[in-house]
């Protein structure tokens, strides 16, 4: 057996790693349940061997951190975590501790839903929103006011209506005007789904769940982009220097009258049994809410009693959270279907039913589950799946259900058959290929496979490409069905006459509901207007929209700035392309291959004839010297003498290469004011030379 010291070390390192990934990178490498189980194991070991507890133990600290991408703000009142449990007995133990701590005084609880997003603290001065800060490490957080201000439901200035009168209270009439409110910033499930669809269309990585998506959105540098992500916030706490409220209940009611978005689901409970009833009631009901929740928060109602009970290093003694385990059910794998995505990648999808086999699917976390993604052939192999197997299906914070295992014991009396992976594309019949380095099989028929063609048009109209938002997925399907559009260039041949009156009934695969879409006058005018306006979209977006493999929005921007027009780009050979800052061999080869095909050149010709922008009118980078030739740079933070754009232009104008991340290839990291900790850390580890703004400018003057 491992000795306790080793295990404590191992757990501390592991949990600190998961915390970093979760809070800094918005990624969950393991489930919350697994994380909490490991944390509990560590806490118990530390209890037994207090001397072995490390100073950086995750049991002592709130998990988050500050990012240095934002101004750091010290919290007036620390922002702590919550103790958590997954079972009733722990809750009863908590209740007993409260009882003891209050020496027999009567007490009651408030139960609230536990919203799954990120904690926010908002400071109001004279009734006006001054600052919004993340929890960070509990003592200091990131100032993300600009992003939080994009939440429409959050009052920027308090005006409230009293119970008896309809006239708004001014700030002066409020009992208190300097205070802090706390709440959970979240992304509604509908916004989350829309965002992921958008990201997918732009070839960018998607988020595993709404929490990670919210966390990412609140920490964007560009608040206009935050605004587009549809964030929201529920408030659940009030803090001030004076004792304003006697109970938590009063504070919630008052916050509501002041115009704050307080979740309506909370309830006062007289004892722990009522708390448990609340927990059972919401176990499935919570799935009908428009946002993700992962449990219940239980708080002692009286503020005086809260003060009496106090805090541990990490969390209040007067509150605890009860977390629901991801629900797991057994079902039957009826069949596997195969979907072809817009890149031609094949995804196997499990078709499931309940054990009764009545065709109704599995009732899981409040929804009916009939399908689960199997990702790729490796996953099927890893699970050892056979058709007609009894499988365990889980639906957690991940929203999309997954198969977690096979009930091998159930096999003896079942008729099983192997899953035969297709050799040909189910959509177009072309033989599938599988590259050595990739897990997925692909259909190589880029130019004839219907989902791939549709995908290209969807990519073309994307906001970051030609931005034709009057055409959605359903409308494109209709255009495909009627043979009006095959490739994006066909969009420019559409006319009012061709579009008017088109109709189609669409059936939702999940719900079976049907909906009719038809092109009436207004729709047609909008579509044509959107297409017309796309002719003004800048070259870099057109280049992205064309859909050359590996040419994402950022690469397209670099190429457009460097070559300035399509002719120069098409004329560039592999070497010339590799000379462009940040363009590597893989991208260069893909571009060369693309333009070597006649059909692609014809396609560009058609788009050009339609009047799209194929040259850029941004100010070009004028070469100044070759002082930086052969050297690569990256910067972090802000600079006194120039903007980031000017710095980038300086690097390029003097022959330097700008890299997008810290790697062993990087020669210099230019470190400005408030540098990013992760870049500096990584540069230190990799021994990358770090220089100041002055040192960089000094490099320019030497010959
Ligand atoms: N999967 C992973 O890799 C990983 C890594 C780190 C942490 N985690 C998870 O995160 C947890 C720790 O996160 P945490 O410290 O934020 O604790 P927590 O999320 O378990 O609870 C505290 C938070 O709950 C939120 N909350 C939501 N509704 C609330 C309400 N009505 N009242 C009060 N607070 C409410 C607040 O933001 C508060 O900060 C872990 O227990 C684990 O489950 C997972
Ligand atoms: Zn195909």
TrEMBL record:
<keyword id="KW-0436">Ligase</keyword>
<feature type="binding site">
    <location>
        <position position="184"/>
    </location>
    <ligand>
        <name>NAD(+)</name>
    </ligand>
</feature>
<dbReference type="InterPro" id="IPR018239">
    <property type="entry name" value="DNA_ligase_AS"/>
</dbReference>
<keyword id="KW-0460">Magnesium</keyword>
<keyword id="KW-0227">DNA damage</keyword>
<dbReference type="InterPro" id="IPR001679">
    <property type="entry name" value="DNA_ligase"/>
</dbReference>
<comment type="similarity">
    <text>Belongs to the NAD-dependent DNA ligase family. LigA subfamily.</text>
</comment>
<feature type="active site" description="N6-AMP-lysine intermediate">
    <location>
        <position position="114"/>
    </location>
</feature>
<feature type="binding site">
    <location>
        <position position="449"/>
    </location>
    <ligand>
        <name>Zn(2+)</name>
    </ligand>
</feature>
<keyword id="KW-0464">Manganese</keyword>
<feature type="binding site">
    <location>
        <begin position="81"/>
        <end position="82"/>
    </location>
    <ligand>
        <name>NAD(+)</name>
    </ligand>
</feature>
<feature type="binding site">
    <location>
        <position position="443"/>
    </location>
    <ligand>
        <name>Zn(2+)</name>
    </ligand>
</feature>
<dbReference type="Pfam" id="PF03120">
    <property type="entry name" value="OB_DNA_ligase"/>
</dbReference>
<comment type="function">
    <text>DNA ligase that catalyzes the formation of phosphodiester linkages between 5'-phosphoryl and 3'-hydroxyl groups in double-stranded DNA using NAD as a coenzyme and as the energy source for the reaction. It is essential for DNA replication and repair of damaged DNA.</text>
</comment>
<dbReference type="InterPro" id="IPR013839">
    <property type="entry name" value="DNAligase_adenylation"/>
</dbReference>
<feature type="binding site">
    <location>
        <position position="323"/>
    </location>
    <ligand>
        <name>NAD(+)</name>
    </ligand>
</feature>
<dbReference type="GO" id="GO:0003911">
    <property type="term" value="F:DNA ligase (NAD+) activity"/>
</dbReference>
<feature type="binding site">
    <location>
        <position position="135"/>
    </location>
    <ligand>
        <name>NAD(+)</name>
    </ligand>
</feature>
<feature type="binding site">
    <location>
        <position position="425"/>
    </location>
    <ligand>
        <name>Zn(2+)</name>
    </ligand>
</feature>
<dbReference type="InterPro" id="IPR004150">
    <property type="entry name" value="NAD_DNA_ligase_OB"/>
</dbReference>
<dbReference type="Pfam" id="PF00533">
    <property type="entry name" value="BRCT"/>
</dbReference>
<dbReference type="GO" id="GO:0046872">
    <property type="term" value="F:metal ion binding"/>
</dbReference>
<dbReference type="InterPro" id="IPR012340">
    <property type="entry name" value="NA-bd_OB-fold"/>
</dbReference>
<feature type="binding site">
    <location>
        <position position="112"/>
    </location>
    <ligand>
        <name>NAD(+)</name>
    </ligand>
</feature>
<keyword id="KW-0234">DNA repair</keyword>
<feature type="binding site">
    <location>
        <position position="299"/>
    </location>
    <ligand>
        <name>NAD(+)</name>
    </ligand>
</feature>
<feature type="binding site">
    <location>
        <position position="428"/>
    </location>
    <ligand>
        <name>Zn(2+)</name>
    </ligand>
</feature>
<keyword id="KW-0235">DNA replication</keyword>
<keyword id="KW-0520">NAD</keyword>
<dbReference type="InterPro" id="IPR013840">
    <property type="entry name" value="DNAligase_N"/>
</dbReference>
<dbReference type="Pfam" id="PF03119">
    <property type="entry name" value="DNA_ligase_ZBD"/>
</dbReference>
<feature type="binding site">
    <location>
        <begin position="32"/>
        <end position="36"/>
    </location>
    <ligand>
        <name>NAD(+)</name>
    </ligand>
</feature>
<dbReference type="GO" id="GO:0006281">
    <property type="term" value="P:DNA repair"/>
</dbReference>
<dbReference type="InterPro" id="IPR010994">
    <property type="entry name" value="RuvA_2-like"/>
</dbReference>
<dbReference type="InterPro" id="IPR001357">
    <property type="entry name" value="BRCT_dom"/>
</dbReference>
<keyword id="KW-0862">Zinc</keyword>
<keyword id="KW-0479">Metal-binding</keyword>
<dbReference type="GO" id="GO:0006260">
    <property type="term" value="P:DNA replication"/>
</dbReference>
<dbReference type="InterPro" id="IPR004149">
    <property type="entry name" value="Znf_DNAligase_C4"/>
</dbReference>
<dbReference type="Pfam" id="PF12826">
    <property type="entry name" value="HHH_2"/>
</dbReference>
<dbReference type="InterPro" id="IPR041663">
    <property type="entry name" value="DisA/LigA_HHH"/>
</dbReference>
<dbReference type="Pfam" id="PF01653">
    <property type="entry name" value="DNA_ligase_aden"/>
</dbReference>
């Amino acid at each position: 057996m491992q000795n306790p010291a080793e295990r404590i070390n191992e757990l501390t390192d592991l949990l600190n790693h998961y915390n970093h990934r979760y809070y800094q990178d918005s990624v969950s490498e393991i489930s919350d349940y697994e994380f909490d189980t490991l944390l509990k194991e560590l806490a118990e070991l530390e209890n037994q061997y207090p001397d072995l507890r490390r100073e950086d133990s995750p049991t002592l600290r709130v998990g988050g951190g500050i990012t240095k991408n934002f101004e750091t703000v010290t919290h007036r009142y620390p922002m702590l975590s919550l103790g958590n449990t997954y079972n009733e007995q722990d809750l009863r133990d908590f209740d007993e501790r409260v009882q003891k701590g209050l020496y027999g005084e009567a007490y009651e609880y408030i139960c609230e839903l536990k919203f799954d997003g990120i904690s926010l603290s908002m400071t109001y001065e004279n009734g006006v929103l001054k600052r919004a800060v993340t929890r960070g490490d509990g003592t200091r957080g990131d100032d993300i006011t600009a992003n939080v201000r994009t939440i429409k439901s959050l009052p920027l200035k308090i005006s409230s209506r009293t119970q008896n009168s309809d006239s708004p209270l001014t700030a002066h009439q409020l009992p208190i005007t300097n205070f802090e409110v706390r709440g959970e910033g979240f992304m509604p499930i509908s916004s989350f789904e829309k965002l992921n669809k958008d990201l997918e269309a732009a070839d960018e990585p998607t988020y595993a769940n709404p929490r990670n998506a919210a966390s990412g959105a609140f920490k964007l540098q560009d608040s206009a982009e935050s605004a587009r992500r549809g964030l929201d916030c529920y408030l659940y706490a009030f803090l001030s220097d004076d004792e304003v409220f006697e109970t938590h209940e009063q504070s919630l009611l008052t916050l509501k009258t002041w115009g704050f978005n307080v979740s309506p689901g909370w309830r006062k409970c007289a004892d722990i049994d009522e708390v448990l009833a609340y927990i059972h009631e919401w176990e499935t009901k919570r799935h009908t809410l428009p946002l993700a929740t992962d449990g219940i928060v239980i708080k002692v109602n009286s503020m005086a009693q809260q003060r009496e009970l106090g805090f541990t290093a990490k969390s209040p003694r007067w509150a605890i959270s009860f977390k629901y385990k991801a629900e797991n059910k057994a079902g039957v794998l009826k069949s596997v279907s195969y979907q072809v995505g817009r890149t031609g990648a094949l995804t196997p999808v499990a078709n499931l039913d309940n054990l009764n086999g009545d065709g109704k699917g599995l009732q899981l976390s409040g929804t009916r589950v009939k399908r689960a993604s199997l990702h790729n052939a490796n996953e099927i192999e890893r699970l050892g799946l056979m058709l007609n197997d009894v499988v365990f299906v889980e639906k957690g914070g991940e929203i999309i259900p997954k198969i977690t295992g096979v009930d091998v014991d159930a096999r003896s009396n079942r008729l099983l058959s192997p899953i035969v992976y297709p050799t040909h594309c189910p959509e177009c019949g072309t033989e599938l290929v599988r590259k050595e380095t990739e897990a997925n099989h692909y259909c190589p028929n880029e130019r004839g496979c219907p989902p791939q063609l549709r995908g290209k048009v969807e990519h073309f109209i994307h906001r970051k490409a030609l931005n034709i938002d009057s055409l959605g997925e359903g409308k494109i399907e209709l255009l495909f069905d009627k043979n009006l559009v095959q490739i994006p260039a066909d969009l420019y041949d559409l006319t009012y006459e061709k579009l008017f009156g088109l109709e189609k009934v669409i059936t939702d695969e999940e719900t079976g509901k049907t909906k009719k879409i038809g092109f009436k006058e207004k729709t047609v005018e909008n579509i044509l207007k959107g297409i017309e306006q796309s002719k003004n979209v800048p070259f870099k977006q057109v280049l992205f929209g064309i859909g050359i493999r590996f040419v994402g929005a950022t690469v397209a921007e670099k190429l457009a700035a460097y070559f300035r027009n399509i002719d120069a780009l098409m004329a560039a050979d592999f070497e010339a392309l590799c000379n462009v800052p940040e363009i590597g061999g893989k991208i260069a080869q893909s571009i060369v291959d693309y333009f070597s095909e006649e059909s692609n050149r014809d396609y560009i010709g058609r788009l050009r004839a339609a009047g799209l922008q194929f040259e850029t009118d941004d100010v070009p980078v004028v070469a100044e010297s070759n002082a930086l030739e052969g050297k690569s740079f990256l910067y972090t933070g802000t600079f006194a003498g120039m903007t980031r754009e000017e710095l980038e232009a300086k690097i390029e104008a003097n022959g330097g290469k700008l890299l997008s991340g810290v790697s062993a290839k990087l020669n210099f990291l230019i470190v400005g004011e408030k540098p990013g900790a992760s870049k500096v850390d990584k540069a230190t580890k990799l021994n990358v030379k770090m220089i100041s703004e002055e040192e960089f400018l000094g490099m320019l003057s030497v010959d």
